């Protein structure tokens, strides 16, 4: 597919060319120009799939380009960029059937999100266009049926042995035989440490797109490419293709995918698998992947589990790591962590069980440090830890290293913050003001990662008032202000200040002020 970028600022054009890994979206040609006239010249010669254009340009603007494209009947996906949020621009963009209207500078994550939608829409449009030209909607229907069939096979919902798969094959007009043999591949992706990681959505899109392009060139077709969990995809192929042909296609896929993925790509591969054994084989390949965490990119064939090198593995130096973190000696700690993981990366047949041990040790270190500073471990780890990253860390030595280093930094930032009691008490007060309608001690302790008892003790020590009395004082002060300065009903004021019961609010107000809310409002 082809992309055209139009902007009178050449730095914007060059920046957009480099901002994304466009090949991951199936875009293999990018054109850049600096005026509408140049854009028209390119579009008269090239069939452009995507246009990203500035609006404000000398001589002719972006809307004039869209008008010209409309007259020419061009079906290009259109995205407009502008430095100003203007209602008239947004309205005009809709009138010209522009897919997106975006403000400059656009963040990479936002541009990536938009392009996933645009490319997906374009692929569907082109497919529908081909089907209409062929007058063959049956193909599209069969593609969906085939996808659902293989999904049910992988989920172990249908089998040939109980005739459920045979029934589906006959009913839905699929061309498979009950005893037919297939090749099964499990594609596993591991990003390099410190490199920008593709989102799961973009990884899936890129994987399928690159596979389809290479397979089409080699004249073969996968029966299914299915998501199989974080950073894994299952590929199912009929054995009517020559085995050397399939292996060459897999090798070409890996060679094409590695450069822009910035990481390792392995394909665990098995042949001669019947329909009833496919789900079991995928699980077996998953197990094999977890037993080969230090593998380089390439094809790995299904075999029995290797012996693990237990004698080369040793636990992290937990006491040393904990002491360094307690004392804030982060550079020494990072050095120790990197030396440890450099050793792990040299161990052949290292499996996921070892990484589970490493994570348990690290969790204990984090727990001890947090508890020593009166912080709650569960809230901190559940909110600070990226759960997708944690799942990947159990399958990747590099990702485990990255996760621990990232959490070292976050824990130390939090410890340093908690030690600045003046700043934290001021933040707690602001939090109470902002959430006065519902704030509780447990909510505050969770927000600031402090144990409830320590929170109460610290607040009294720093302010001279208990937390509960302080919250009640703030609520009553706010209630008095609302009674005098607004026309809110007393029930509304009660809710606004954290008293869902009108009767309880009135009772507390009289106890605090010496008057009922009505008497106070009337100045009695």
Q: Which parts are unreliable, with pLDDT below 50 for 5 consecutive residues or more?
A: none
Number of strands: 10
The helix fraction, in percent, is: 55-70%
Number of domains: 4
- Mean pLDDT, all residues: 83
| Global structural class | alpha/beta
Terminal CA distance: 78 Å
Describe the strand arrangement of the main beta sheet, using strand numbers. Answer: 2-1-3-4-5
Q: Report the C-alpha radius of gyration, rounded.
A: 31 Å
Identify the CATH homologous superfamily of the largest domain.
THUMP domain-like
Number of helices: 23
**Strand percentage, roughly?**
5-15%
Look at the structure and give the CATH class of the largest domain: Alpha Beta
Q: Do you know the CATH architecture of the largest domain?
A: 2-Layer Sandwich
The gross shape turns out to be globular
CATH-defined topology of the largest domain? Alpha-Beta Plaits
The major pleated sheet works out as:
5 strands, parallel
Task: Please provide a written account of the structure.
It is a single chain. Helix content is 58%, strand content 12%. The protein has 23 helices and ten strands. The strands form two sheets. It has a five-stranded parallel sheet, with helices on both faces. Strands 7-8-6-9-10 form a five-stranded mixed sheet, sandwiched between helices. α1 links the parallel β1 (2-6) and β2. The radius of gyration is 31 Å and the shape is globular. Keywords: DNA-binding, Phosphoprotein, Transcription, Transcription regulation. Residues 426-523 form the HTH araC/xylS-type domain. Pfam families: HTH_18, Response_reg. InterPro entries: CheY-like_superfamily, Homeodomain-like_sf, HTH_AraC, HTH_AraC-typ_CS, Sig_transdc_resp-reg_receiver, Tscrpt_reg_AraC-type_HTH.
